[in-house]
Specification:
Length: 301
């Protein structure tokens, strides 16, 4: 804290300026329209992803010459050092490529003490997520709280799943192996609803801002989560894996909440994985047959 009581961030101002500059480039590309290429069966990349990563890489190297950079589009600079930035230069590429204005730049800084094994996590110490379409800047530093556009940001106070608005996402690779549609269905029935907006980093930022009360996803990468996890924790929330163990950058799965009903969510994950208490859901065929009966005046939808 400064003499005036204001929080002083060390890494955030420079990282925020970089994220804003990259966000401005993304806004220009978005206005022009871009052509997408395929990285996988539904995994897209555009010229904007690459241009944004190059800009962020150059600016981070100039601002923090000793820091490592680990970017989605292939940057692996100085990653053996004490500090490492996880860079998602454009989170929400599918939205971006379709003209759907929900995407962001995500920069998360990890401090890795000497001697840490490559597979071990250090500590997330700074986070910047910038949504260029809404001009919203979400930031945090470890132990100093979280802010949205310069104002303190807290998770929601919703006490239970029944009253919660949730968020999730679905992977763009190996989609047929993913069970999340079952979780989507069950959580939809047990809450106020589940949003699938297409940017994992913004989903986490929205938990931190109290706009959604919990978020989960399978199959993520460190560049999707590093910044958002610190935002949620510094805003008073909780982040774990699906069993309640510590979240790890490489663990791929994430459950983030306002902390108040995290245990309830974990119990629900445990029931789901054990196949307990699943609500029956009509198959499309059963539904069509019921419609037919209703048309004949003998059934109820
Ligand atoms: C994707 C988004 C999406 C999530 C996918 C991610 P990208 O990141 O965060 O919300 O569901 O799993 O891969 O590819 O747009 O950077
Ligand atoms: Ca991403
Ligand atoms: Ca990306």
């Amino acid at each position: 804290m400064s003499a005036t009581g204001a929080t002083e961030f060390n890494w955030v101002p420079q990282a925020a300026a970089i994220a804003r500059e990259a966000g401005a480039r993304l806004r220009e590309f978005f206005a022009q329209g871009v052509v997408a290429e395929y990285k996988g069966d539904a995994d897209l990349v555009t010229v904007a992803d690459r241009a944004s990563e190059k800009l962020i890489r150059d600016r981070l190297a100039a601002a923090f010459p000793e820091h490592g950079i680990y970017g989605e589009e292939g940057t692996r600079d100085r990653i053996e050092g004490q500090f490492r930035w996880y860079v998602d230069p454009l989170d929400g590429t599918t939205n971006f490529a379709h003209g759907f204005p929900q995407f962001c730049v995500s920069l998360g800084l990890e401090e890795r003490p000497k001697g840490l094994a490559p597979e071990e996590d250090g500590s997330l110490v700074a986070a910047v997520i910038y949504d260029p379409m809404r001009d919203e800047l979400f930031v945090a530093e470890r132990g100093r709280g979280a802010q949205l556009n310069g104002r303190p940001m807290r998770v929601s106070r919703v006490p239970e799943l029944r009253e919660a608005l949730l968020a999730t996402g679905f992977p763009s690779r190996k989609r047929h192996r993913n069970p999340n549609i079952h979780f989507y269905q069950e959580f939809t029935l047990r809450s106020h609803g589940v949003r699938r907006a297409g940017s994992a980093a913004l989903d986490l930022a929205y938990v931190a801002a109290g706009r959604v009360d919990a978020y989960w996803e399978f199959n993520l990468n460190p560049w999707d989560t590093a910044a958002g996890v610190l935002l949620v924790e510094e805003a008073g929330g909780r982040v774990t894996n699906f069993s309640g163990g510590p979240f790890c950058l490489d663990s791929r799965e994430i459950l983030a909440s306002n902390a108040l009903f995290h245990r309830e969510l974990l119990g629900f994950f445990s029931d789901m994985f054990a196949g307990r208490d699943l609500e029956p859901i009509p198959s499309p065929r059963e539904f069509a047959e019921r419609c037919e009966l209703q048309l004949r005046g003998t059934g109820d939808l």
